[in-house]
Write a structure and sequence with these properties.
Layout: E1 6-9, H1 22-31, E2 35-37, E3 40-45, E4 48-57, E5 60-67, H2 76-94, H3 98-111
Antiparallel strand pairs: 1-5, 2-3, 3-4, 4-5
Helix pairs in contact: 1-2
């Protein structure tokens, strides 16, 4: 089972880029194969044994990842590449780069919304 879902804001006007089958296509482009499990799109890549994504609304995307059991068996480069791929996916899916996502999360935390 994946870790708890994390909510990511979707940039205003960005939803059309992931609506319909577009999120699945995007996941396939970034991670390779994707399967559907109910409302979840599920994939894996490198250090991430499971990547789950689900559109909650036009403004929220939920994503959860679970690492492989033995991350010590992976090289630092494999782990860094996995993180880069996840960031690439999140940027393409939400319209926000890692810096903007962090800033938004910090603002929500200050407001007690997390």
């Amino acid at each position: 089972m994946a870790d708890a879902m994390t909510h990511f804001d979707i940039k205003k006007g960005w939803f059309s880029k992931i609506d319909g089958g577009n999120l699945k296509t995007l996941m396939e482009e970034v991670f390779g194969s994707v399967k559907e499990e109910g409302e979840l799109l599920v994939s894996s890549y490198g250090a991430m044994a499971r990547i789950e994504a689900k559109i909650v609304s036009k403004t929220v995307l939920d994503v959860a990842t679970t690492n492989v059991d033995d991350t010590k068996a992976l090289s630092d480069e494999e782990i860094l590449n996995s993180k880069r791929k996840l960031n690439e996916f999140l940027e393409k899916a939400t319209g926000f780069d890692a810096k903007a996502r962090m800033k938004r999360a910090q603002q929500k935390a200050k407001k007690g919304e997390l």
